[in-house]
Amino acid sequence: MNTRFISGFALTLAATVTFLTPATSAKAEAVTLTDIAGRQVTLDEHPDKIILGEGRMMYAIAAITDGNPFDQIVGWKDDLVQYDPDAFRKFEDVFPVDTQRMINFGNPYAGDFSIEAVLEADADLVLLDSGNLFKAEETGLIDKLDKAGVPVVFIDFRRNATENTVPSLLILGRILGEEKGAAKFIDFYISEMKKVTNVVDQIPAEEHPLVVLENAAGWQPDFCCWSFGPYNYGRFVELAGAKNYASTLENAYSVSLSMEGVIDADPDHVIGTGANWAEAKPEVTSTLLGYEGDPAVNAEKIAALAARPGFAELRAVKDGNYHSIYHQFYNSPYHFVAIQQIAKWLYPEDFENLDPQETFERLHDEFMPYEASGQFWLSADQ
Q1: SS3 for 37?
Q2: Contact between 224 and 257 (Cβ < 8 Å)
C-alpha cells in the first residue's frame, strides 16, 4: 500500500471538510480556509486581483477554470515565460491581451519583491508555494504583506506534490469560485494516478528497479548531477514502482550526486528531465521537451546526453534505458502523466495497455484551453 499517497487523500479529506461551508453567494462574503502551510486565512471577499508567486501556477489554474484563466490574475513571477516559453506561447495564442498586461513582480522569495507594486496593482491576494514558506518568512514578505492588508495563501504542486495537489486544487477552486472545475479535475487526477498505483502495489518492493534521476540534465553542460530525494520527481519514481537512488543517500528535496556514485550504483534506468530552456540559457544541452518539442532535435540531444563520460558505460544506457521527460511536470498537477510514462518504462509488460500519450491528449481535450502538441518524453536508442 502506498501510504504516502493515501496520506495525501487524508489531507484532502481534511481540506474538503474545511470547505463544506455554505457557498459564497455574494462577492462581499468572507472566505475562510486553511492553506497548505496550515495557516488559517480569511479573505474579506472573493479575490479578483491575484498575484502568483510563480507563473507556473497557471498550469493548475487553467485546468480548473471555465473561461479565461487570467481574468483574476494581475501579475506573477515570470518563470513561465523564462523556463517554459512553449506553454507561455500556447496561453498567449488563446488569451493575447491578458498575458501581455501581466506585471512581473520578480522573485517573492529573494527579497526583491516590491510591496509597493503590489499595492499599486490593488492586489487582494498573493499565492505562494509552500516549499518556500521559510524563505517567505525569512525575508519578512509575509509580515510586510500582512501589514499592507494583502492576504497570503500557500499552495503546493512541487515539494510534496502527490500529497498536496488535491487539497491545493480545492483551495484554488474555492478562491477562484471554480469549485466544480476543481472537483472534475480531481476526479480525473485520482483516476489516472490509480491506474499506476493499483498495479505497483502488487509488485514486491525487492523487485523494484533502481533509478537514477538527473534533475535538469544538460542545464549545466558536463556536470553530474542534481537529483531529487523522496520528493517531487523522486516521489514520482517511487510511486511508479522504482527505488530512487538519491532517496537512499539523503532525505532531502535536492540531492547532489557524483558520477562515481552513479557508476557504483549501476542503475537499471536513468531518467533526466528537460524543457525548452534554450531561449533563456542558450548554452544548455538539455532535451528541449515541451509543446514545441521536435523529435528529430531531441533524438540528437538525448544521444549526446547518454554519450557523456561516465554515462556511456552505464548498463542502463547500454540496455536502452536512458530516458528524458518533461521537467515542468514537476511543478504542475499533471504529474500523473509523468508517473504513467515512468511506470511504462519500468514495467512495459504490466503497463502494456496504458497509454500516457492518450492520457496527455485527453487532459488537454477535457481541461485545457489549448490543444496538446510537441514532445514530452523520449528514450535514447541502444
Answers
A1: coil
A2: yes
